[in-house]
Amino acid sequence: MSTTELPASHAELMDGVYRWQRHIYDLTRKYYLLGRDRLIAGLDMPQSGTVLELGCGTGRNIVLAARRYPNARFFGLDISAEMLETANAAMAREGLAARVTLARGDATDFDAKALFGTARFDRVFVSYSLSMIPGWEKTVSAALAALAPGGSLHVVDFGQQEGLPRWFRALLRGWLWKFHVEPRASLRDVLGSESQRTGATFHFRTLYRGYAWLAVIRSRSNPIF
User: Fold this and answer.
1) Which residue range or ranges hold the Methyltransferase domain (predicted)?
2) Domain spanning 3-218, CATH class
3) Alpha carbon of 77 to those of 32, 80, 199: distances in Å?
4) 33-42 pLDDT, tens digit each
């Protein structure tokens, strides 16, 4: 899907949500987007590897990952032009523009080769984006299709808060809904099903009594899709 074919309603919604929020996004989200740094630490990048983030937002995760893995090349995709403006500024400020390529696109349907000049990546990660993407299941399939043989997909997002008090779950859900965020109850099942379909290995864990879910899917060296 080209930039001109982006689903207008969702792209416009995200631009509207983040037109002003992007300026304070990283400052406020660090208190409740838990598990992102653990995901980055677990990427375990190969030497001179390639990494794609779907729903890269302000570029916060890419900056941290690029510092941790100085020999890797990074790519970021987001549907919001507003967020990408902030992300590009962050890359320039951090001196990472030569190692990072950002593009506007739909994470459920994108042509990595056309956008980035490469079709496969050693690592793909999605951090707190599936809970905001309509048709998010397609993003999982697209992410796995973009993996190089032996690569891995890393996902962190809101869990079902299964170990937390009911009042807390209700309060959190109400707050998240204001930002068009919906924790995906079927996330574990979808990731597990996609792992089976592709013959990949699947590792899943809950964090902070189910506040967040963290998953890793490692692809076969000889993929079947």
Assistant:
1) 51-151
2) alpha beta
3) 22, 9, 26
4) 889 999 999 9
